[in-house]
Amino acid sequence: DKAGHKHFMAKEIAEQPQVIGDAISHYFGSGTDLHLPGDGIDFNGISRMILVACGTAYYACLTAKYWIEKLAGIPVEVDVASEFRYREPPVGEDAIALFVSQSGETADTLAALRYCAGKARTILSVVNVPESSIARESDLALPILAGTEIGVASTKAFSCQLTVLLIVALEAARQRGRLDADRQAEIVTALRGLPARLNLALDTEAITERLSQELAEAQDVLFLGRGQMYPLALEGALKLKEISYIHAEAYASGELKHGPIALIDQNVPVVVMAPRDPLFDKTVSNMQEVMARGGKVLLISDKAGIEAAGDGIWRSIEMPVVEDLLCPILYAIPAQLLAYHTAVAKGTDVDQPRNLAKSVTVE
Ligand code: F6R
User: Fold this and answer.
1) d(Cα 252, Cα 158) in Å, to the nearest integer?
2) CA distance linking residue 158 with residue 60, whole number of Å
3) What is the whole-number distance in angstroms between the Cα of residue 34 and the centre of ligand 1?
4) d(CA 161, CA 66)
5) Neighbours of 351 (CB within 10 A)
6) For 71, which DSSP code?
7) Angle between helices 230-244 and 55-67 (to 10 degrees)
């Protein structure tokens, strides 16, 4: 049942305020205390975390690296499961291994988990399907509570994965004495306000739909982001290519001048995901480099960011202001809407893109 939407993907994008709200209530109850199930996870006894997944779930892990390292001070390694499983990486008692999977059945991710079982101190997973193999074989499975996701391109599962991974980072920070009660309360308040901000982000749909008509003409699209927004750029590019079949690539903004800037001309839209955070000014200079070469910048930012970027921007999509840590979750929405409407404009099969399966249970 598409609940009045044209595609499951549209329905699932629209459901995000609700399901993310559910996940937040699940892990926080009504106060500001965390309710990570199973008190057993000891974030003090470890010296590193290993995060492994595939595809969109891998980008959720990359985002979590920024959060866990910054908030909890734990070094984090992130890898795609198909590489991790065959590399014979050293894994020991000093590590928590964490696997992220919507389906909980992805063959490579499951194999990576089995490789770590009996080596790592704790096997954690972040899953949407609690009865799945990955959930069952973990010491502790944290549900993302996204509900059934039917569209092949992951949307609400991604933002719910991010939400739960941020909560893991907060719990790790709390245990390690790096999160005082005031800051914790501030973040929890921001999280509780997130569904309302997500609804505001969804209100940009009409603008995004119009923009997507223009994006649908492009052969190639670049996505740029810095810091915790870099994985979001990767996710935006993946979403666009998998459902619209437009070639899209993402780079960390600072990498632009190390190669990809050679691609820039007036035919290449460059989507920049950059809230007005402490790194914003650096991203502005990257945008200027693009514009100086005739590139078309589509800036996704907040009001202050769009104003500060000045003239010369091709198009912009304005996001509400949120606590910095929550920007990756909020900015997932315009990334998904852009991909969705561009694919609709091109007339592709949005819910069932060619060559793709929802659950990849073979290598
Ligand atoms: C992209 C997408 C895939 C999955 C990947 C992992 O939109 O959906 O990249 O994220 O196949 O799947 P799970 O999360 O089920 O392990």
Assistant:
1) 20
2) 7
3) 28
4) 14
5) 19
6) I
7) 170
Q: Side chain identity at 347, as an amino acid letter?
A: G
Each residue of 99-124: b (16+ CB within 10 Å) or e?
bbbbbbbbbbbbbbbebbeeebbbbb
Rounded mean pLDDT of the chain? 95
Q: How far is the CA of 266 from the centre of ligand 1 (A)?
A: 33
Task: Give the model confidence (pLDDT) of 47-92 as tens digits.
Answer: 999 999 999 999 999 999 999 999 999 999 999 999 999 999 999 9
Classify residue 278 as exposed, middle or buried by CB count within 10 Å of its CB (0-12, 13-18, 19+).
Answer: exposed
With the most atoms of ligand 1 within 8 angstroms of its CB, the residue from 79, 106, 110, 126 to mutate is 106
Residue % of the chain over a pLDDT of 70:
99
Between the alpha carbon of residue 298 and those of residues 123, 154, 341, the distances in Å are: 40, 23, 15
Protein residues whose CB sits closer than 6 Å to any atom of ligand 1: 54-57, 101-103, 106, 109, 153-154, 238, 242, 359-360
* Ligand 1 atom at minimal distance to the Cα of residue 109: 16
